[in-house]
Amino acid sequence: MKMKRRLATAALGVATSGVLIVATAGAAHAASADASRTGVSVKATWDWSANSLTDIDYTVKDTDCDANDVYTRMRVYTKLVPDGTDTSKRYNSTGCDTTVTYSDLKFEATNHITGVRVYACVDDAGADSCTRSTFKDNPEVD
């Protein structure tokens, strides 16, 4: 009921002043990162909160015509785990010059997330070949 009164009061104020100012509390901060190396190109976007990453979207492109799968993941850094925790790998196994998209993923941490890096990797013989994005600071955490 209070919300209806506030909306009615706001509408009355707009009608008399001709000006409407809309404020949103707790709006999410959007972020993005890119990473690429020979064989793979990755784009990631997400929304920050203090303890979670939401609306995570990945685009994983296989840029080589070899038999190697490519994948992406994030390393999430928190105040209690400053060395980071890796998220699940998201693969593109469809081959030469193809793109796979993952949408609306989420990562929950038990404490404040200080930042992330996005990794672009080729699943090749032996240790995988990876590169990472620059460190992205979480604007929701001091």
Attribute tags:
142 residues; mainly beta; disordered N terminus; single chain; 11% helix; four-stranded antiparallel β-sheet; six-stranded antiparallel β-sheet; 1 helix
How would you describe this structure to a colleague?
The protein is mainly β. The chain is 11% helix and 50% strand. The radius of gyration is 21 Å and the shape is elongated. The model is unreliable at 1-25 (pLDDT under 50).
Mean pLDDT over the full residue set = 86
- Proportion of residues in helical segments: 10-25%
DSSP helix count?
1
* SS content category: mainly beta
Largest sheet report = 6 strands, antiparallel
Number of strands: 10
Low-confidence stretches: 1-25
Shape: elongated
Please report the distance between the alpha carbons of the first and last residues.
36 Å
Radius of gyration: 21 Å
Order of helices and strands: HEEEEEEEEEE
Beta-strand content estimate: over 45%
Question: What's this entry about, in short?
Answer:
By secondary structure, this protein is mainly beta.
Give the arrangement of secondary structure elements:
Layout: H1 2-17, E1 29-37, E2 40-48, E3 52-62, E4 69-78, E5 85-86, E6 90-92, E7 99-108, E8 113-123, E9 129-132, E10 136-137
Antiparallel strand pairs: 1-2, 2-3, 3-7, 4-5, 4-6, 4-8, 8-9, 8-10
